[in-house]
């Protein structure tokens, strides 16, 4: 564990001057023997122990890694609050290319750092980490979820994540078009990895037209070979400009909605699995000004965290799926609040989440 006194100046600046502030604790982790460099950010424990996944990514700098951890941890606080979980928000990032440096030794070292927090932070999978990785981390840390069924866990949380996003899309369709069905609607999915590929299945089963893109062409090819009706386009820039696109689903990394993409969007709804889709404050208003209905990312992608939270009490898939199905009702309530208050849905969701956290702090 690295004391902030030894942190580079750019990291300290990010920590103390972030516009995503209010974090309770940030831990800088380093294990020279395994090559581990990680950041664990605990945003809030008002509702309970912070819960959030571990992202493994080749950040360009330590400051960028810290900023991502802060933003993601804050998002988890809001996500867990809106999902009705007894958990606050936290997130961890491991710096480096998982294809090159991920090892058993590194994951075990990471598990020891998480364990050193004594349960204030509960970890799980995220971009670059998988069920098998959490099985290794759990050997050193009992505050680990997202493990395999063979090791007492619930397995792949992307199944319920995609189901929740699908429910969010149905809510958007109900709000905008007066019918929750996505039959004959055209949905564009950017990123068809762990979550996106399951989302494709839900949409096709309902009779939607699906257009996809992903930087990994082999992943795209596997889906189009399995589902010949699915259309693939070259990149996200092409996807957001598809004619007659009804729904755009960002399911890769954050920042998908920005000053370049929003003006080019042809879709009337944005509802996807990616975290932190709004590149900066104000984008939510840009969407509203263009008449584009935005389903807040941390609301609709909460199916996965609902699953891993349930793992801590003895996992029951049917119980989790029933809770994830309520994302439909939650999303509809947010749209109604936004309309009533005359604000974008993202702002409405934030108000509800902040109220729940404030009430929890008062009770404590």
From TrEMBL:
Q: Which residues form a coiled coil?
A: none
Please report the organism this UniProt entry assigns to the protein.
Streptomyces mutabilis
Q: Which PANTHER family match?
A: LEUCINE DEHYDROGENASE, VALINE DEHYDROGENASE
Q: Give the principal location in a single coarse category.
A: cytoplasm
What Pfam families does its record include? ELFV_dehydrog (PF00208), ELFV_dehydrog_N (PF02812)
Q: Which GO terms describe its biological process?
A: L-valine catabolic process
Q: What does the subunit section of this Swiss-Prot or TrEMBL entry state?
A: Homodimer.
Question: What is the protein name given in its UniProt record?
Answer: Valine dehydrogenase
Instruction: Give compartment(s).
Output: Cytoplasm
Return the PROSITE patterns for the record: GLFV_DEHYDROGENASE
Q: Which family does it belong to?
A: Belongs to the Glu/Leu/Phe/Val dehydrogenases family.
What are the binding positions for NAD(+) in this chain?
A: 191-196
Alphabetized, the UniProt keywords read: Branched-chain amino acid catabolism, Cytoplasm, NAD, Nucleotide-binding, Oxidoreductase
Catalysed reaction(s) here are:
L-valine + NAD(+) + H2O = 3-methyl-2-oxobutanoate + NH4(+) + NADH + H(+)
Listed CDD domains: NAD_bind_Leu_Phe_Val_DH
């Amino acid at each position: 564990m690295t004391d902030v006194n030894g942190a580079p100046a750019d990291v300290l600046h990010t920590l103390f001057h972030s516009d995503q502030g209010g974090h309770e604790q940030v831990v800088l982790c380093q294990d020279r023997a395994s090559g581990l460099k990680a950041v664990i950010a605990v945003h809030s424990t008002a509702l309970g122990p912070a819960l959030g996944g571990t992202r493994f990514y080749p950040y360009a700098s330590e400051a960028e890694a810290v900023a991502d951890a802060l933003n993601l941890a804050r998002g988890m606080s809001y996500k867990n609050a809106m999902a009705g979980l007894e958990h606050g928000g936290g997130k961890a990032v491991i710096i480096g290319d998982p294809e090159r440096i991920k090892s058993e030794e590194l994951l075990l070292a990471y598990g020891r750092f998480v364990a050193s927090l004594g349960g204030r932070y509960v970890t799980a999978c995220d971009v670059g980490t998988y069920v098998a990785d959490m099985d290794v981390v759990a050997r050193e840390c009992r505050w680990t979820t997202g493990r395999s069924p063979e090791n007492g866990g619930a397995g792949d949380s992307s199944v319920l994540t995609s189901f929740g996003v699908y429910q969010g899309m149905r809510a958007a369709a109900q709000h905008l078009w007066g019918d929750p069905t996505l039959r004959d609607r055209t949905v564009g999915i950017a990123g068809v990895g762990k979550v996106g590929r399951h989302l494709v299945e839900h949409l096709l089963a309902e009779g939607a037209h699906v257009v996809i893109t992903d930087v990994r062409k082999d992943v795209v090819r596997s889906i189009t070979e399995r589902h010949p009706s699915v259309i693939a386009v070259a990149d996200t820039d092409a996807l957001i400009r598809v004619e007659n696109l009804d729904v755009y689903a960002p399911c890769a990394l954050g920042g998908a909605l920005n000053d370049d993409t929003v003006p080019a969007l042809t879709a009337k709804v944005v509802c996807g699995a990616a975290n932190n889709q709004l590149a900066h404050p104000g984008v939510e208003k840009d969407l509203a000004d263009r008449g584009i209905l935005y389903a807040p990312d941390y609301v609709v992608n909460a199916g996965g965290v609902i699953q891993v939270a349930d793992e801590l009490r003895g996992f029951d898939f049917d119980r989790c799926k029933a809770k994830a199905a309520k994302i439909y009702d939650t999303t509809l309530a947010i749209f109604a609040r936004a309309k009533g208050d005359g604000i974008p849905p993202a702002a409405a969701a934030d108000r509800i989440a902040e109220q729940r956290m404030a009430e929890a702090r008062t009770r404590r």
